[in-house]
Write a structure and sequence with these properties.
This protein has 226 residues and is an alpha+beta fold. It contains seven helices and four strands, in the order H-H-H-E-H-H-E-H-E-E-H. A four-stranded antiparallel beta sheet has the order 1-2-4-3. The termini are far apart. The N terminus is likely disordered.
Amino acid sequence: MTRPPPSVRTTPRRTRRPLVVGAAAVVAATAAALGHALLNPSQPPSPSASPRSPSAAPSRAPAPVPPLHRELRVTPGEADGVVPHGVTVLDDGIPAVANLDANLLEALRRAARHGADDGVELSVNSGWRSPEYQNQLLRKAVAKYGSEAEAARWVATAKTSPHVSGDAVDIGPAEAAEWLSEHGDGYGLCQIYRNEPWHYELRTEAIDRGCPRMYADPTQDPRMRP
């Protein structure tokens, strides 16, 4: 048989079957992965999933809301008996003064007029107090002195405090309280506790008989006992 010359010899065509097989393998793997995800919807998504896909967002429980602090309250003001600086027994516009017992207030004002002749002004450091304000002062006293027993030497409860009933006033400054300790009995105004030289109450009998003997502190006062 005569062979054809090299210039006209037919060159065999290369097959592309390996590329087709490789592409088919990728398609099959992708389909298998999708089918597995559809059959198992609870399984977490693949790390290669798009972050914008809802299925790719991690499931997080909402953060718990902290409970409200039930002991928080509005800071007491003038309406509760807080006294601004410079208030005297003559200031009717201040609840701590205006809500005092009428007879006590009248005696204080008579004393204040005579005190002014001696160059003394009777200022009010504290007078009438609301029950809420009184209880807050007691809580602070317990924190300061370390126990209810020690705090009771300085601050009464809202149920027993004469400040809440409008029957007590704390006078300042120190020279005014000292003046009142010398002249107060003439107006029926008496210091009640030895450890509180600023605390005065009305004892009308003192005008004729002098002020009664002072208690060492409020814990000795029968009115403070439950």
